[in-house]
């Protein structure tokens, strides 16, 4: 019986760690995407102040491609919208997983001791 209780505690501990790790990974991905979105905002604001025919460079697949501002701005805005959409999806997923984790903690009577 003691061995069974130890095994159960070990399983709960592993499951707790998996939940925490999963939440941390989601949070990190959200932060990374927010940084990328902020970079897009900065570039868009900078390019808006320049003539549309001005030469600029865009990195595509690790290669710098020469374009002009009017060619680059639409793709930057589209990319930024996609990033924001992904942030929204990941935020919803994070909240859902956090609620699952909280429910799991209550169901298994898990209390954090510091």
TrEMBL record:
Coiled coil residues, start to end: 80-107
InterPro entries linked: PFD2, PFD_beta-like, Prefoldin
Entry GO CC: cytoplasm; prefoldin complex
Signal peptide: none
Record keyword Coiled coil present: yes
Keywords tagged on the record: Chaperone, Coiled coil
GO biological process: one example: protein folding
Any one GO molecular-function label of the UniProt entry: tubulin binding
Family, similarity comment: Belongs to the prefoldin subunit beta family.
This protein's name: Prefoldin subunit 2
Organism: Pneumocystis murina (strain B123)
